[in-house]
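> forwarded from #structure-qc
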């Protein structure tokens, strides 16, 4: 039993499952710790008071509801004893390898949809998911300054503006306003060019305007 691979896989499934709330995850981790203490047997008895204390669940109703939810969603196999002198049993499906997971869980799943969910989600490698996200984020940003300068040159805009654009956003971590991550740097560059054109147009109009002349007729005899 490789508990590191197991936890990586089960947390990956947690992140994709909108049905779960923090109480479900807390209860699962308490059951996992109990499983760990018992050296990962196929089945083990639990003590309700101890599990509630470990999972920080104060309500018996909440405890039983979350336990049944985890059973119904195939995260655990709950075997209630209905005997006050004998604890209920838990069976923890293994999520650490594809072969173990399919062997443990396929018999518990009654629908084809649930089977595909376990195969496609619970077994997705955690490290590969991170690499995929990282590569997707890198595509939003320019490879280097030269790529930005070439883009500005194609837009027939001064290369100096390209250097200003690159230095500005590179200095603030490629975030708009220092907070929002840029989704498409080329669109941001086009907005930069448009704003620069507006500024240049405004300067030209200001220089050609005679501020001493006015088109309005004013009565300077009236008090302010």
């Amino acid at each position: 039993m490789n508990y590191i691979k197991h936890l990586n896989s089960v947390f990956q499934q947690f992140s994709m499952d909108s049905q779960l709330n923090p109480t479900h995850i807390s209860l699962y981790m308490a059951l996992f710790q109990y499983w760990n203490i018992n050296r990962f047997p196929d089945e083990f008895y639990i003590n309700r008071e101890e599990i509630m204390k470990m999972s920080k669940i104060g309500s018996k109703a909440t405890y039983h509801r979350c336990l049944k939810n985890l059973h119904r969603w195939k995260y655990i196999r709950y075997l209630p004893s209905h005997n006050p002198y004998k604890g209920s049993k838990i069976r923890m499906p293994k999520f650490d390898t594809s072969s173990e997971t399919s062997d443990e869980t396929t018999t518990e799943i009654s629908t084809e949809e649930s089977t595909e969910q376990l195969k496609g989600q619970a077994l997705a490698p955690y490290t590969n998911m991170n690499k995929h996200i990282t590569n997707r984020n890198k595509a939003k940003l320019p490879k280097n300054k030269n790529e930005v300068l070439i883009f500005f040159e194609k837009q027939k805009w001064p290369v100096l503006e390209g250097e200003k654009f690159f230095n500005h956003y590179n200095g603030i971590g490629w975030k708009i306003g220092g907070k929002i991550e840029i989704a498409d740097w080329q669109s941001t560059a086009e907005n930069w060019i448009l704003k620069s054109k507006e500024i240049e147009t405004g300067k030209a109009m200001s220089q050609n305007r005679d501020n001493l002349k006015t088109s309005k007729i004013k009565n300077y005899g009236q008090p302010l």
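QC bot note: DSSP finds ten helices and five strands in the chain. The domain at 3-132 is CATH 1.10.10 (Arc Repressor Mutant, subunit A).
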